[in-house]
Amino acid sequence: MTSSTPALKTVQDEAQERRSNRLALAALYVTLTIIVILYSLPGLGVIISSFKTTQEISQGGLWSAPAQINFDNYDEAWNNGNVRTYVVNSFLVTIPATLLSILVGILSGYVFSKLPFRGSNALFIFVVAGMFFPPQIVLIPLFRLFNSVGLYDTLWPLIIVHTAFGLPICTLLMRNFFSAIPAALRDAAVVDGANEGQVLLRVMLPISLPALAVLGTLQFTWIWNDFLWPLIFTQSDSMRTVMVGLVTLKGQYSVAWGVQGAMAVIASIPTLVIFIFFQRYFIQGMTLGAVKG
Amino acid sequence: MARSRWFWRIAFLAIPLLLYLVIVVGPLLYSFFFSLTDWNGFSFDFNFVGLENFSKIFVDPLFGNAIKNTIIWMAAALTLPTLGGLALALALNSRMRGARIYKSLFYLPICLSLAVVGQIWIWIYQPRWGLLNITLDSLGLVDVSRAWLASPETALIAVIVAWAWQQTGLAMVIFLAGLTSVPTELLEAAQIDGANQRQSLLRVVIPLLQPASVVVIALAVINSLKSFDIVYIMTGGGPFHSSDTLAMMMYNESFKKYFMGYGSAISVVLFLIAVVLIAFYFRQVRRLENLYD
What we know:
The complex is a heterodimer. Chain A is an all-alpha fold.
């Protein structure tokens, strides 16, 4: 028996413990605050420098505060005709590919959850496994495929490939979501004479909004941020998306660091907006996609 | 009834599966086929060369180098972001006020594109005014500061650190989700039994985090195999191939040197490594499910 046994705690001990607890909490706050500041520095540097003139950057470095907030870099970046084309292209790819990948995920997720058949579980795993493979393993055949059907250097390959590669995660999340819906709901509709298409459309989808929000935020972010596919399937400036364009334009603005910073900020705004407003869904998707895999 | 069920199964699965077969599975098989050829990427024709590409792999010093760098990447991925994410999750899981803001700031980088992350860190490592060298110089460590991305000794680790900056938030999210499944009764019971904080952390919390750990570790390893975007943007695999990963080398051989046959052989190796890792992961997940069900 030692004095640390709770039953033998004295009042004095307890007061001391409370004091040391409070001290530990304060230490935790200070440490975390320092870490979070250090952690945010890289991003902050880019944002700060996007408001500075090139002269200011080359004299004072990225990390000093700007003498005055100056939007010249944003002006320059936005009025470079290419940047606007890149942003428009990114939307033209991201919006349809997000919707289509969710649509195919709904269809297959519904079958795997509510209309299982012999071997459907194996088929499900076969589809979901696609999520884990490095895309490099299909790069060359897809490059040849889109070349031979004349879709190279258009936005179509990007939409098609993102839809296909979104299928695993969308199927996984929709199946798990549909599985949590009681079978009685479907059975009641079937008794009332509804077919599977009507069940899916009128019964399942209206209560699937949370799952659709999760998938929408995830898919939008991933597709918008993608770099590899537009690098492989597009070539001309008029077909580049914003992430590849960012890298392409670096040559043109090799010493205009402020403009580079402004372009990086512009390219990140859509996903940042999604993150800020739909953070809950975003995080939920990240964990669901990972944990249930 | 049974017939109408099959009608809907086929109707729902047709498009998703067709897409998956044409864009993912078919091209994967085609990669095996191309790995036996000398296709150059431009001409429509190619010759069969048997296993020549594979025998080249085993004597190509660049391939050994890429394997080595990929293993270093995995090792770093298993330590830096994994342990960092675990520490942050444990610190932020306590009912401290403002934890939400801290969490948001730590996972904000997840919503950024690797193209942007790479850009941000290029500036940190910038030799003349980059944050790292400025800090080192001001601390009097002038000898330590260098052109981090242009030195073969530091390029790889510099890129990995940038990548880890983003991945830490992802690991934290998954560990936090795992922590919510730790029942508070269990912690209270441990406390009543006289366990101090360190003991209950090591004996209760960490063991219960096993499922989350499996996911984080699997993601770290699998994402290491995919390491391409950020390498492409920050170093392109250089200088002198010092930051070449398998995925990066596959791209360079195929789309820079146009050795599409050889590139396909590398992608086949990449696929085989991924299969082993993914099979191992699925087995672990299944084992855990049996353990907890």
